[in-house]
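Changelog note: in this version the structure field was regenerated for every chain. One regenerated record is shown below for reference.
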Amino acid sequence: VQLQASGGGLVQAGGSLRLSCGASGIVLAIKTVGWYRQAPGKQREMVGTFNVNDGTTYADSVKGRFTVSLDAAKNTLYLQMNSLKPEDTGTYYCHPSDTSYWGQGTQVTVSS
C-alpha cells in the first residue's frame, strides 16, 4: 500500500491550497478516509474524513473552510483548504481508517 500526499507549500494567511492523496494497493472508496495533521510539538489531529455512504466530518477548527472529497475513479482523496490561518500549519497526512497506513505527508506552512 502506498499513499502519496502532495500539494502542500507556503501560503499567506487567507490563502488557499488543495492537497491530494493518491493511493495504490488499497481502494479508498470502500473505507472511511481522512486527512490528519500534526504541528511541531503537538499530537496528530483529525482534520476531516470522507465516507461514500456517511459523507464527511470535520474538526470544529476547519468547518466552513476545508472540504474533503474523493475521486473514486482516480483513487485519490482531496482536501481543499480556504481561508488558511497560521494555526493550520503542519504536516498533513491521509489515512484510511482501520489500517496502519499513513504515507509520508505533505507540509503546509501558513504565514501571518
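Spot check on this record: The chain is about 0% helix and 55% strand. The chain has a mean pLDDT of 96.
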